[in-house]
Amino acid sequence: MITALLLLSVAATPLVSAQGANVPAGFEDQPVASVDAPTALAFTPDDRILVTEKRGILWVVETDERVEPAALDLSADICANFERGLLGVAVDPAFGVNNNYIYLYYTFKKSGECPKNTGGTPVNRVSRFELVDNSVAAASEEILLDNIPSPNGNHNGGDLQFGKDGNLYVSVGDGGCDLRDRSRCQGENRNARLPHFLLGKILRITTTGGIPAGNPYAGRGKRCAMTGRTTRGDQCRETFASGLRNPFRIAFNQNAAGTVFRINDVGGQAWEEINAGKAGADYGWNLREGRCKVGSFRECGKPPRGLTNPIFSYSHRNGLGCGSITGGAFVPDNAWPAAYDGAYLFADFVCDRIFFLKPGAKAGLQGKEFASDLGSPTAMALNPSDQGLYYLTFKNGGEVHRTVAMP
Prior knowledge:
mainly beta; Neuraminidase; single chain; 407 residues; 1 helix
């Protein structure tokens, strides 16, 4: 992520402002609640919103108010420096019916310290917890994935989303610097190309941490769930797709009959990209960025054999100052004006905007701006109950916002 996101200091929680973003005629945008440095959100079936705070706090927002005290405080066990922290949350598909499970992605302070590029660096972890009423008992934690390296502090990924197949999808960044040679960072970092690391991948597991039968390496790889890696020359069974730099946010299409999703991969010096989630796909990092060779604006086009181009990309030379893609969401069918049917929304942290893509869009921002003056958006999702777009922003230290189409 962009440095401004990483290094935001955690301040005292402000009051919610009355200022919304600039949205099109026929829409209304309003702040809902304050949460310092918010990173991810998810909805429970009974219409509560779970919001993660970067430093390690999980909040419940109910009837447009933040519930006190916090549902869970993991800050003593979390590294929140650089891009690390409590980065993802998901709600079990059977929540409220068969269980009360939620899932969190966070950077665990394994050595008791939070350095980078040393032997004592922290690790990223995915755990399952139980949410009872508005409280989570830390003792309910069951670790599903562990020891995913966070060597350089950045490129942790961190999103958790359930597909319609009932499986949990996990986005993991490349760690910033090469695990085998810590002097090789950014475009020289090869972690995403190595199948025996969980870095630079989309992972897919069951609600208990098992391996779904359709995973590309399910029948011939090795388990990496507790180690974050396996031996060189082998593959991690948890891997669903690879070749990603920092897939900070992913988004699933609830309009689709099956599991359809997009991967918003934060670029380096040249391109931001949106990928179609496909089993076994290799999206090309650190060889490709957008539809081009890494670092290039001209050597673009058809990817080398075995690699997959994004379905959409935009250059850092876009004229709007955009340069760090974050949250994504699909517009629900028949809920918004017809101009948005089939659209995919995505946010950019740097230029404070949300854009929308119609099916078939290939490249460029194409002038399809949906909202501006968001205050550095980090994540967003459509609420099934009111069809509103809820997004997180760093405005005023951190806010949850809701955008709805007016009747």
